[in-house]
Amino acid sequence: MKLREIAHSRTGDKGNTSNISLIAYDPANYPLLAKHITAERVKAFFADIVQGEVVRYELPNIGALNFVMFQALGGGVTRTLALDIHGKSLSSALMNLEVKE
Amino acid sequence: MKKIRLGAGAGYSGDRIEPAVELAEKGNIQYLCFECLAERTIAIAQQAKMKDPSAGYDALLAARMEAVLPVCSQKGIKIITNMGAANPEAGARKIKEVAGKLGVKGLKIAAVSGDDVLEAIRGQEYTIEETGGKLSAIKDKLVSANAYLGAGPIIEALKGGADIVITGRVADPALFIAPLAYEFGWSLDDWNLMGQATVIGHLMECAGQITGGYFADPGYKDVPGIGHLGFPIAEVSEDGAVVITKVPEAGGMVALATCKEQLLYEIHNPAAYFTPDVVADFTGVQMAEIAKDQVKVTGGKGAPKTDLLKVSIGYVDSYIGEGQISYAGPGAVERGRLALDIVKERLGLMGVKTQECRFDLIGVNALHAEKLSAGHEPYEVRARVAGRTENLQEAVRIGNEVETLYTNGPAGGAGAWKSAREVVAMVSILIPRSLVNYSVKYEVV
Q: What ipTM score was computed for the predicted complex, to two decimals?
């Protein structure tokens, strides 16, 4: 099952750091996200985009995870050569991750 | 219990204007807050002010005020905005001029200044947060330095009788915290209350992003009436509990999902969100959909604010030259790749000096690089080359090498485009609060 079936996501940016929220539509699926979508997995998934570390924060009260990805935006919104200067499309890529039921 | 209704009139500088008018007319609000200052905007405004001392405020300030002033003054709705950018006092004079032209009378306009700390920090040995480098290394390239002020100066302006408060750099949530603290008489040292107020400000500051804007994904996240997206209203109780809602007839939606996405937008550690007013903690936030388009949010907490203020620094960093050209039909991807290879070779042959360069095929790999983009074949692609250079002349040469693909490159190249521009980069430092002195000045019409 693709992550898209059970969760939604939005990317934000601050300087050269990107954050991706991952939110379960049904809070009952939060443990599944917490178990399978680790910081290591997200770091590997974005390997050729994210240069720095990936840190995961947990918000079980709203059924969400927050991934903070350092050195992910080519120097930041004003400086990057990337077409997606804010990295706003990264959350859509994450929706393609496989998660076991 | 007393309740205050705040409307968010803009989520960024270039945002739509008519949803703010709709809020003022039909939202039963007491305050209309416009967040219009992105990281980079103030540096550009500072450059404009250097050329013209009466410039440097938001480009849409006059248009927004023309649209909302008549109804806001008639209904007694107060306006709070950071549209002053690099020049709040000139912004206040502009609002006075607009009010005069519209025949609106009896308004007190407050300009909050003092966030500009460029002269105070120039040549100092602060450490740049992002790079660990020293500020002195870029001292000759500085364009702007603005400290993030908190809610305090805005509250002072409201206590001074202001109907409109225009600021430069303040923390975005402060635009919403200030009217709440002023109306309810909240103590700015009540850290849990300030934490919850920060949650409210953070939920509201991007306007349409919590009413279904930047959210729709057909079949998964459908948003009704998104073409006529309404902006949010925060109905806040004296204890800090908030219901996020919208004008009923406006398009869009307020749901748990839109509120959760916005809560985490541009947040790093949700347990320690640093602002000038409080170190906010979002980890205890509870959300409940209490009716259609009504989400109740409680549980924001906080810890004491720090003695440091974040300063956003703009400096001239480099130049970026860019060129694009499109290919379509059978073999489009191969011709696009050939185009990129040709430009790569030409930049070398011509000795164009770049610090870094990027070769993208838009439609193939431009957003997510090779690994995530593999296995898809589009009908049309757009070749894009972008490079960083030390001066504008070198930057111009990059676009030229793409444009000459018309008569010197692969078959069927179409729609070439080029640009070259100066890059004002943004970094940040932390300075002691004691270095920042704000002032509030009034205009009356």
A: 0.96
The pTM assigned to this predicted structure is 0.95
Q: What is the pLDDT of residues B106-121, one digit of tens each?
A: 999 999 999 999 999 9
A56 within 8 A of A42, measured Cβ to Cβ: yes
Give the model confidence (pLDDT) of B225-243 as tens digits: 999 999 999 999 999 999 9
Q: Note whether B112 and B440 are within 8 A (CB).
A: yes
| Residue B44, token pair as written in the block | 């550009």
Distance CA A36, CA A100 (A): 8
Give how far B21 is from chain A: nearest CA, Å: 28
Supply angle C-alpha B168, B430, B88, rounded to 5.
10
pLDDT at B192 over 90: yes
What's the CA gap between B129 and B127, in Å, rounded? Answer: 6
DSSP assignment, residue B127?
B
Give how far the C-alpha of residue B65 lies from the chain's centroid of Cα atoms, to the nearest Å: 19
Cα(B124)–Cα(B127) distance, rounded to whole angstroms? 9
Q: How far apart are CA B320 and CA B398, in angstroms?
A: 9
Please report, as a single letter, which amino acid is at residue A44. Answer: A
Residue numbers in B near A77 (CB within 8 A): 39-40, 426
Phi-psi sector, B123: left (phi>0), alpha (psi -120 to 50), beta: left
Query: pLDDT of B123-159, one tens digit each?
Result: 899 999 988 999 999 999 999 999 999 999 999 999 9
Give pLDDT < 50 ranges for chain A.
none
Dist CA A22 CA A3 (whole Å): 9
Per residue in B35-71, pLDDT (tens digit) is 999 888 888 899 899 999 999 999 999 999 999 999 9
Chain A touched by B269 (CB under 8 Å): yes
Provide the CA B133 distance to its chain's centre, in angstroms. Answer: 26
Provide the shortest C-alpha distance from residue B7 to chain A (in Å). 23
Least Cα distance to B359 among B347, B376, B351, B350 occurs for B347
Report the alpha-carbon distance of residue A56 to residue B74 in Å, rounded: 49
The contacts of residue A31 (CB under 8 Å, 6+ apart) are none
**Distance of residue A98 Cα from the nearest chain B Cα, in angstroms:** 13
Question: pLDDT per residue over B307-341, tens digit each?
Answer: 999 999 999 999 999 999 999 999 999 999 999 99
- Interface check A8 vs B, CB under 8 A: yes
Residues of A in contact with B326 (CB under 8 A): none
pLDDT for res B137: 92
CB contact under 8 A, B264 and A12: yes
B178: Cβ–Cβ under 8 A, 6 or more apart, which residues? B80, B151, B154, B155, B158, B165
Residue among B220, B266, B320 minimizing CB distance to A12: B266
